[in-house]
User: What shape does this take?
Amino acid sequence: MAVQWNENLSTGIDWQDAQHKELVARIGSLMEAMSTGKGKAEITNILNFLENYVVTHFSKEEEFMVNRSYPGYAAHKAEHKRFIYEFTVFKNEFEKEGSSSSMAIKVQRTLMDWLVNHIGKIDKGLGEFLSSNAYKIKSIMV
Ligand SMILES: [Fe+2]
Assistant: This one.
């Protein structure tokens, strides 16, 4: 099964979509590596990527939520925290035991779940809020 960016995942916010597209591409690389028996090796790359990504991407979303007084902020931030926790568990396991095929499967499942349930639903809700908020600001200015 290949994973690809599609319009259903779009939040309508350019910077958010660009960062999500990068994550989708990384999941694609992991899945491709797994299908050719190289999942173990790719785990290092994806964990390195995620280490930086969770900090920069989540803080940018959270900054927008705070600045625009987003009503779903607390629940959204809690989801980010949960993901960071899951990532930390993977990282600790990786540092202790190295990578394994079963770990590649677990990481892939977690990321796919994130894609469908967080990006496809929760981030989409945020995107809609940010878009309508921008529209309101624009219409006041006109
Ligand atoms: Fe998010």
